[in-house]
């Protein structure tokens, strides 16, 4: 599966998702009811036939099914239905979706996959209140397609919940800012928002935190209007914007492009982060004017990177 055109032209606020489904058992033995989910194609290494795995009795989580060997990787396989609380109806043609992100390769057992859709982030609605059995923590948004909703999965949240040590939100920042800085932070994940709040506030930042790129842009434009109305530079009210790349309504690339296209806010630095900071995506971020791009496994360095940008000092890390 090619990854060269996954996020399409930079700043178009579009991505491509792979649609998959899980067949749910129906009381009384009726025909299974499919639930539809989607993931960013850029996170998918390949889809393979499901091997005959017997979950080990010593598994730390009931969704863990064992491991397979693939392309020199030892890949843990997770039963996605078990994680989501769905009683899956087994059949002989199930598949494993093998993903690669956040420096990890992981397999997810599902009933099957259907097709790839090109969607705009503006068409991705935040999770609705009726997504209740699994909660909204595993779902970042909903996309309407004909007679069904596709629920976009937050695979990072699943992995971090299974491996809590991967989210180092309890570590003190290695650097403290020389003065109080003001930041807008945008992320649709409550887990990531909490981690960034702890990390940045401990490093001497005042934060305004929003749920997606559109809310971030609205906030920056509001700050810009206030600064303009008072005849002052926006830097008197805002120092930096920090945003995820993948968010409902507006992605981080489009947010950055809009900030940089605005005469009032163009000099505000933007840090983007994602589990998918490949060389291609790094180029996309640079093309819209991002000051820095960070992979999610390195999020504990966020405060250090932000301070380095604001105070003109070299930062450690990549």
Give the SSE layout:
Layout: E1 14-24, E2 33-40, E3 44-49, E4 64-70, E5 73-79, H1 80-84, E6 95-101, E7 104-110, E8 112-120, E9 139-145, E10 148-153, H2 155-162, E11 181-186, H3 190-202, E12 205-210, H4 213-229, E13 240-244, H5 252-261, E14 270-274, H6 279-287, E15 292-295, H7 302-311
Helix pairs in contact: 4-5
Descriptive terms for the model:
OB fold (Dihydrolipoamide Acetyltransferase, E2P), alpha/beta, 32% strand, Rossmann fold, 2 domains, five-stranded mixed sheet
Q: Under the CATH scheme, which class of the largest domain?
A: Mainly Beta
CATH homologous group name of the largest domain? CheA-289, Domain 4
Indicate the proportion of strand residues.
25-35%
**Tally of separate helices:** 7
As laid out across the biggest beta sheet, the strand order is: 8-1-2-10-9
What is the approximate shape? elongated
N- and C-termini, Cα separation: 28 Å
Q: What characterizes the major β-sheet?
A: 5 strands, mixed
Q: What is the succession of H and E elements?
A: EEEEEHEEEEEHEHEHEHEHEH
Counting DSSP E segments of at least 2 residues, the number of strands comes to 15
Protein described:
- It is a single chain.
- By secondary structure, the protein is an alpha/beta fold.
- It has 2 domains: 14-162, CheA-289, Domain 4 (OB fold (Dihydrolipoamide Acetyltransferase, E2P), Beta Barrel); 167-311, 3-Layer(aba) Sandwich (Rossmann fold).
- It is built from 7 helices and 15 strands.
- It has helices at residues 80-84, 155-162, 190-202, 213-229, 252-261, 279-287, 302-311; strands spanning 14-24, 33-40, 44-49, 64-70, 73-79, 95-101, 104-110, 112-120, 139-145, 148-153, 181-186, 205-210, 240-244, 270-274, 292-295.
- The strands form 3 sheets. The chain has a 5-stranded mixed beta sheet with strand order 8-1-2-10-9, with no helix packed on it.
- A hairpin with an 8-residue loop joins β1 and β2.
- α4 (213-229) packs parallel to α5 (252-261).
- The longest helix is centred in the last third of the chain and has 17 residues, at 213-229.
- It is elongated, with a radius of gyration of 21 Å.
